[in-house]
Amino acid sequence: MILAAALMMAQSAAAPATIARGETIFAQTCSVGYCHGAAGTAARGPRLRGRTFPREYLDRVVADGIPNSAMPGWKDRLKPDDMRAVVEYVVSLATATEAAPPANPMPPGVGPATLPNFNGPRLAERGHSAFFDATRDNCGICHAMGGRGNAIGPDLAKIAEKSPRDVVAAVGSVKAQHVLTATLADGETFPALQFAQNGGQIQLFDLTVIPPVLRTFNRAEVTSLRANPSWAHRDVAKIYTAAELGDIAVYLRWAATGK
Ligand code: HEC
Fold first, then answer.
1. What is d(CA 72, CA 74) in angstroms, rounded to the nearest whole number?
2. Given ligand 1 and candidates 47, 205, 234, which is best to mutate, with the most ligand atoms within 8 Å of its CB?
3. Residue 32 has pLDDT above 50, yes or no
4. Residue 6 predicted with pLDDT over 60
5. If you placed Cys at 111, which of 106, 185, 238, 255 could pair as Cys (CB 3.0 to 4.6 Å)?
């Protein structure tokens, strides 16, 4: 029966009533304070709006959560129909194009709600906007600059001192030197960056999704951490125009050197 339902789901688009129900549950359950933003915008959890996820992945993540991360599983808290409605709602967000409502308020000190307005020079302004442009998978999701963004990937300050042309070249040809492949005792593998290690615990950013999810493990759960030279950086040319990348280089240089 469940299998039949799953097959039907895969074949037909969900009824509007199901999506509407999912929207209500999402607003009550997922779009709260610290997690996903209103209508699937980014908050502390990843942005869901305008993104495509395989339905099986959503079914699994909504039911079971992402182990050792802030994303809980909901199978003990939501009825199967409600989980299905939420998944349908998130699937429907893939094509959401109308302006999203303002993002959730955030706890003090975290996220866009507290980000200062840009008050640097005109020449750096466009690059700053592009670097942190919340409507796409922007650089600031993984790189911090000028006191903003997430320091998940490397500090770009050294590279930023180069000429804008060299910066654009560097951005277009990132070689993975820090990214690892983490293998867990249960066989799961994922591209990872080590965040912290203390006592018997290790914290890894899981780069499978954007923004990367911070997961905490007991050291014994992680059976290996190996170099992952084939990890591919975001293809920035698919996200930004050449002109925008030039603007970003100018911004980075200004942020790193004041010039
Ligand atoms: C999903 C996260 C993510 C996003 C988004 C992202 N980066 Fe990166 N970036 C990384 C990681 C991780 C590395 C380090 C790879 C390694 O060395 O293994 C990196 C490396 C780099 C490097 C090389 C740094 C060095 O010291 O060698 C540059 C330059 C860079 N990124 C620029 C950018 C720019 C500009 C953008 C936006 C257009 C961007 N990145 C978006 C994660 C990201």
1. 6
2. 234
3. yes
4. no
5. 106
Buried b (16+ CB within 10 A) or exposed e, 243-253: ebbbbbbbbbb
228 φ/ψ angles, rounded to the nearest 5 degrees: -130, 65
Judged against a pLDDT cut of 90, whether residue 1 lies above it is answered with no
Q: At residue 111, does pLDDT exceed 80?
A: no
146-176, pLDDT tens digit by residue?
888 888 899 999 999 999 899 999 988 999 9
* Residue 107 pLDDT exceeds 50: no
- Closest atom of ligand 1 to CA, residue 137: 5
Decide: 167 in ligand 1 pocket, CB within 6 A.
no
Rounded to an integer, the average pLDDT of 9-30 is 77
* Cβ–Cβ under 8 Å, residues 215 and 204: yes
Q: CB of 236 closer than 6 A to ligand 1? A: yes
Residue 125 alpha carbon to ligand 1 centre in Å:
21
Virtual CA dihedral for 96, 98, 99, 102, nearest 10 degrees? Answer: -50
Beta carbons of 203 and 219 less than 8 angstroms apart: no
Q: Which residues contact 171 (CB under 8 A, 6 or more apart)?
A: 236, 245, 248, 249
For 43, phi then psi, to 5°, come to: -130, -125
User: Ligand 1 mean position to 25 CA, how many Å?
Assistant: 35
Q: Let me know: does 91 contact 58? Beta carbons within 8 Å.
A: yes
119, exposed or middle or buried, with CB in 10 Å at 0-12, 13-18, 19+?
Answer: exposed
Residue 28 to residue 20: CA distance in whole angstroms: 13
**Rounded Cα distance, 190 and 196, in Å:** 17
Distance CA 72, CA 67 (A): 8
Which residue carries 């990367």 as its tokens? 212
